[in-house]
Design brief:
182 residues, mainly alpha, Growth Hormone, Chain: A, 9 helices, 0% strand
């Protein structure tokens, strides 16, 4: 949960998309709709793929790769000034986020005792909801302090740093195989 919370806290660039569309892309409001939808499109495509091909082996490795991929996609998005490249990188961020969500959700459901599953699920929901909202605040503050594009790039770099730190501090997570739990 902490890996996701900090990744979303720093890497979430969706909340400042209106400013990005106006200042970087110099585009019309419908461009915002295109960019807002592309992470969801990436997530849906990945969800369909994962429904047919679940990640049961090397799950921990794929979790770290997906969160790092999310950070890299956010950096690439921040460096882009083309609508279609921005949409592509936001779509990739949605793909990576989807992989992370599926693996984390599976870990939570498979490792939580039955009598605690509801409580743990509720706490997980609070973590996700609050990290998204706090991430929006962080994005706005960072954009006002260091600029719009630098704040997006900083968020992606911070996400990758969180992955590197978690990778070092949680060796059991990087060796996780969901098939061993099921």
């Amino acid at each position: 949960m902490a890996l996701d919370m900090f990744a979303v806290l720093f890497g979430g660039a969706v909340s400042i998309l209106p400013a990005f569309v106006k200042e970087v892309l110099n585009a019309a409001p419908e461009t915002l709709g295109i960019l807002r939808s592309t992470p969801a499109i990436g997530a849906v495509i990945t969800g369909i793929y994962l429904a047919k091909r679940p990640i049961l082996t090397d799950s921990g490795k794929y979790l770290f790769i997906s969160v790092a991929g999310f950070g890299l996609a956010i950096i690439a998005f921040g460096l882009s000034s083309s609508l279609w490249l921005c949409a592509l990188f936001l779509g990739i961020s949605g793909c990576c986020d989807s992989v992370s969500v599926v693996i984390r959700g599976s870990i939570m459901q498979l490792t939580t005792p039955d009598h605690m599953r509801g409580r743990i699920s509720a706490i997980n929901g609070i973590f996700i909801g609050s990290s998204n909202e706090l991430g929006a605040l962080e994005s706005g503050i960072a954009a006002s302090l260091i600029g719009l594009v630098p704040s997006i790039i900083f968020g992606g770099v911070a996400t990758i740093a969180v992955v590197a730190i978690t990778y070092q501090l949680a060796p059991h997570l990087r060796k996780l195989n969901l098939k061993d739990i099921t």
